[in-house]
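FAQ: What does the model actually see?

It sees only this:
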Amino acid sequence: MLKFSGILRIGFKLLVNDKAKFSALLIGITFAVFLMMQMTSIFAGILNRAYATVTNIGAAMWVMDPAVNTPTSSIPLPNYVLDAVRSMDGVSYAVPLFVGGAQVKLKDGVYQSVTVIGLDDNSLFGRPELEQGNIQDIYADNTFIVVHDAEFSKLEKPKIGTSFELNDHRGTIVGIANVSENGLNGIPTLYTTYNRAIEYIPTTRFTISYILVQPKNKDAIAGIKAQVAKLGYVAFTKEEFNKRTSDYYTFQTGIGTNILFMTVISFIVGLSISGQTFYTFILENLEKFGALKAIGAKNSELIYMILFMATVTALVGYGLGVGLVTLMITLAKIRLPNYASMITYGNLLLAFGMVVLIAAISSYIGIRKVLKIEPFDIFRG
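And it is asked to produce this:
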């Protein structure tokens, strides 16, 4: 690379001295990265919230009906499945979980939809971390724990002792909890005991939404899955359940298709702007490239120069785009707590790959033009 340092320095000066073209190139790539990152970050945020229940409960394995695709669309299991799972080889313990929806009537008479999660009465496995209150108070009559998340205000910012009505039953807040992830559906979440949840909320004949399983060790997971399959049900690890949810939103709803479509459009926009601008830049500097050839510059050196110029522009534009989308997401979350968007390594790598592709195509267009020029054509003109 050292032998090309002189030619690369010339290329850098050619690039930055034409401030108008350099700015146009940066704007094109920055705008493309911003759009691609914004679209994929929104999708990542949606998926992260889609399996918030799995993340917050934290169980190692989940037993469910094979038709279940997302944590909020549970299909009740018969009680005998719980007994069977508890007796399986490799199972350390198994507890029931209830997940259901309800309407609560607040003090001012307003009705608000909520998600009610019923924890195993004996172990309270999956209980959230409390900001206020004592977890033992959940065993008192009519008691619930409310999650302090982005939807907290929809319950009129309840305090410990706040009461409400749920299906003609009185409910009292005895704890305010904090969870890892907010839910996707934009409704508040209440925790209570399993038996109270199935008593307060009308259900079908079967009441168990999921069976949470703790295997004795990792080697026991495969055996547990096989035993559960013989019962006609499925057992997923936490990661597998999250992937199932992710696949559902990606391939079986319009969300994944729409995000992919917008990401492709962003790439095409960035490629169009950058490719056209870079080609124009090369055309306007053909005389300089011809002069470099005349004084002995080789084709390989000119190729390195163009690749260097495209790479510098792409990396600077990528950095500006990532910085801009990070700033926007941060400001949006400050003003809109329920804003679902997050930057992941996958987002960054995808955007970087597309930027590299934009730089490669732009370079190819410029290289073809430069390699065709002859020094005598420049001086003859």
